[in-house]
Amino acid sequence: MSYADSLTELHGLPVFDFPRPDEEPRLPEPDAAAWRVSYNPYLESGEIFEERFERFLSTVGASRVRALIIGQWGEVYDKDAGVIVDLLVAAKDRLTSLEAVFIGDLTAEDAEISWIQQSDVTPVLDAYPGLRELGIRGGSGLRFPAAEHQNLRRLRFETGGLPGEVVRGVADSELPALEYLEMWFGVEDYGGDATVGDLAPLLSGGRFPALRHLGLQNSEIQDEIAAAVASAPVVAQLASLDLSMGVLTDEGAAALLDGQPLTHLRRLDLDHNYFSASMEQRLRDALEPSGVEVALSEKGDEDEYDGEVDRYTAVAE
């Protein structure tokens, strides 16, 4: 399974790629699509990203745009997303209906996820008080100091290495409307240095009173995260919990089963796991009779050499 795919929708709207200068497709209504603006320096010449973004603003009826996706903005391993943040902040009086932003919609064919150079993305929140959804792909250079925002409902970070300072910044933020939080922790080799301790304010409950979905995913320490979640007060308020994509073994699954009841959940995602067949059955027997949808069919990859077994997160480089 491929995880970091190109988006096909955002904020409930289908994606439409803003055309190159030599293309003349029929454009949708400004508020009927999630507009993706991108520029591939290896396949295109002439108009650079900044020029394309200005043409987008001048062409589509910017004041009615609800969802915006930023794809490739040039050589993303060399030019960080600070330029994108600056463009978005400068356009705040033009994009007056903007409700959703995703920065870094690139696939592995464009750039490996850990090559994407991000930046401090919180100025986007400051510039758009009506924003409901923010998504980021790529963890290199990513910063998220503690922020305040009254209307943000969905926040997600897709990375092969999520800096601990980002996790701490999110956990210390004031986001009273936040309903959905997804974080891919990745691996230490690509900057994923977050610890379970960094999650403490979030797991204690009360920080995000509207939270109904929590994804703590794609981690080398997935068993430790599962053990912490097993006794975390925040779980009681959730409708869905996602611990997929990481190195989750029978140890982590046993901690979940021995912890607080999870039978109130609608869905528990444990895909990309390293469970034994007997543990899979224990999980199903414990949860499915209560109506919990348990996802655990996908297995993670592992290698064995000289008696040593190596296991991997779903997304790293």
TrEMBL record:
<dbReference type="Pfam" id="PF13516">
    <property type="entry name" value="LRR_6"/>
</dbReference>
<protein>
    <submittedName>
        <fullName>Leucine-rich repeat domain-containing protein</fullName>
    </submittedName>
</protein>
<dbReference type="InterPro" id="IPR047722">
    <property type="entry name" value="STM4015-like"/>
</dbReference>
<dbReference type="InterPro" id="IPR001611">
    <property type="entry name" value="Leu-rich_rpt"/>
</dbReference>
<feature type="region of interest" description="Disordered">
    <location>
        <begin position="297"/>
        <end position="317"/>
    </location>
</feature>
<dbReference type="InterPro" id="IPR032675">
    <property type="entry name" value="LRR_dom_sf"/>
</dbReference>
